[in-house]
Amino acid sequence: MVDDMAAIKAAKSDLRKVIHQKLKQLTQEDVALQSHRVRERLFAMPEYQSAKNISVYLSMPNGEVSTRCIVEDALRKGKGVFVPYLYKERTRSDGKASAMMDMVSLHSELDYNSLQPDKWGIPTVDRASIPDRTQVMGAHGKVEDAAGAGAGIGAVLDMMVMPGLAFDGERRRLGHGKGYYDFFLHRYQERLQMMLKEEQFSIEVKMPHIVALALIEQFLPEEQIVPTTPLDYQLDAVVVGDGSLHHSGN
Questions:
Q1: Which residues contact 160 (CB under 8 A, 6 or more apart)?
Q2: Alpha-carbon span 12 to 228, nearest angstrom
Q3: Rounded CA gap, 181 and 101, in Å?
Q4: pTM higher than 0.85, yes or no?
């Protein structure tokens, strides 16, 4: 088992290097054209059209599908839009803080346009504004104590639009290696199941429709697969830069 995990880790690392090299060769015009095709396909999805609350990654200036127009469209349609927020939480046994991710609300297009870029050029929510935003995992996403205090979900997501480095036809995803999204989904699912068990919802609630956006260079040919472990969530759909949609019904 240890050898298998080591082999998967090595395979993931090798694939990341290959995809990074491909992405370096893309121009901004390439990314812009593919981003247009992706968002038009996404906008046509019934799951997007019916979603009341969606989470959307905020894209880097280059090297991945741009989500700017997606965020703007969702806000203009009156959807609740939630974006990633990274913070430190003392969850490790050695007392050191671990980096974790929550999804927090955007108030408006003006709010979105006010976000300042981080060192990777990604628009980033300011920490000082967090208390005024709805947080999907609750108060700063803190892990509940032994009695379960603080457990629950601050907002129910209908769709998650996720980034990644590589994807395949079976909707497997290779991330950047930090595990932020998989861990967020694991915590979200645990809390959702707890709340359903306690009958805290008056309507039918389920896990969000998980959609990844991929440039053509990130989508593997049929003979290749993304190496995964049981901790890696399978996607519901992948929208690719050639305009194709790969989902569970394919």
A1: 54, 55, 185, 208, 209, 210, 211
A2: 8
A3: 7
A4: yes
